[in-house]
Each structure stands twice: as C-alpha cells, then as structure tokens.
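User: Can you write out an input/output pair for a complex, sequences first and structure second?

Assistant: Here is one pair. Inputs:
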Amino acid sequence: MGKVYLTGAGPGDIELLTMKAFRVVKEADVIIYDRLANPDILKEAKSGCEFVYVGKEDGRHIMPQDEINETIYQNALKYENVVRLKGGDPFVFGRGGEEAAYLFERDIKFEIIPGITSAVSAPAYAGIPVTHRGVAVSFRVVTGHESPNKKESQIPWNNFKTDDTIVFLMGLHNLPMISKKLIEIGKPADYPCAVISKGTTKDQQVVVGTLADITQKAKGIPTPALIVVGKVVELRQQLKWFEQ
Ligand code: SAH
C-alpha cells in the first residue's frame, strides 16, 4: 500500500512549484492530475511514471469527484508513491479535503503539499497586492460559481460591504451577476475591479474596469480567470511588472 501526496501545482508559472512538490513529482510512480496543473510539470517525472488525467474545468468535472476519489484510492493500492497534482493549492477550492478524507476512511497514508494559490499569485503577477496599508486590511477568496438551480445564493453578499479585497474564483461565467449584486449591496458603479486570465503564464491577460463596465470589457477572455474587486486594483498602474 502506498502513500498519496495531495500536491499543489501552483498557478501556472512552473517556477512557482514548491521544492517539496518538485521532489514528490520526481519520485512518483503515478501522477493523477487535472487541467489546471501545468502539464510541463509532468516532464519532471521519472521514466515509467504513469499519468492519469482526471480533468476538471471551472467546477464542472469531466470525472465526477467520487470517481476521482476512488481513482486515487485504487492507485494507492497499486503504487508506492502516488501524486495527486492539483492547480494552485489543493485546499483552496480544490476539493483536496474531500480526497484526503476519502483516503483517511480507507487507512491510506497521505501528505498535503500546499501550493501557491492563484487567488494571491495571479493578482501579484498583475501588480495587484491583495492587501495594502491604508487600502485593504483583509481579503476574501470566494467561489463565484453558483448552481443555477439554487433559489438562494450561497454567496454571503452582505459581507462584502467593506473595502476589503474580494477575489472570486470560478466566477467568470457569472461576472454579470457578480457585478450587479455588488452594486445592489451598495458599492459604487465605478468601483474598481479586474479580471485576470491565465495568471502567471506567458498568456496572462488582465482587464481593468469598474463594476459597471467589467462584463463588457472582459468579454471573450479565456479561462481560467479570476475576478478581483477592490481599491487595490488601482495600485496596478504603478505595480504591473510582469507584462513589462
Ligand atoms: N486550487 C486552485 C483553485 C481551483 S478553482 C488554486 O488554489 O488556485 C479554479 C479557479 O481558479 C478557476 O476558475 C479560476 O478562477 C482560478 N484560477 C486557477 N488558475 C488560474 C490562473 N492561472 N489564472 C487565473 N485564475 C486561475
């Protein structure tokens, strides 16, 4: 029986992989990965390493989560070193907790290897600090994905009345709803926000706008993308370093 490393692959830039993640990838007998993990990481695996794709797109799963859990478990019965490689950090909207619990219930040893989450690093590569003295004293990372069947919103809109930074993951398709809701709870229509697509990669795109015009401006931008709402977005004017 093997051990499973629930491993964060970082946001895209391969150099944002941790040294620990790099080591377990090199030692892996099998790597179970999803769409957001940079595929170049797989080139670091030893020869003979097996690769299992369990693609996952913006909350819509190609393979249902219970099948992913079972796939990880079956591989742990077969192999010594199992790497479950997930985009960003495994515990930030990565369902890593569910995968770990599934293994715990089946007496499979596991380790969590945190990764650099896109929630902080994509803004950083866009020149947007998620906190900034005198501008934002905290930041929230929120799911922007809402099931269209749910009558009541799962998102705690009324908590967003302050100027603290809000980062929405999995929210691009809901951008019209998100900006409308934020205006409804009292944010000004010209409140700053940004959409960051493929953050930290050579294909990174950043669109800056206001709650009123961001939907229009970000039309057609590719996923994965996240939304940053807050006055910190204005700091980008001076701090955008990556695109230069
Ligand atoms: N565990 C991941 C997040 C998984 S949810 C992490 O910690 O980063 C998937 C969402 O993450 C996407 O819908 C998108 O909103 C965001 N995302 C992931 N990688 C991204 C990137 N390189 N640039 C912008 N957004 C990204």
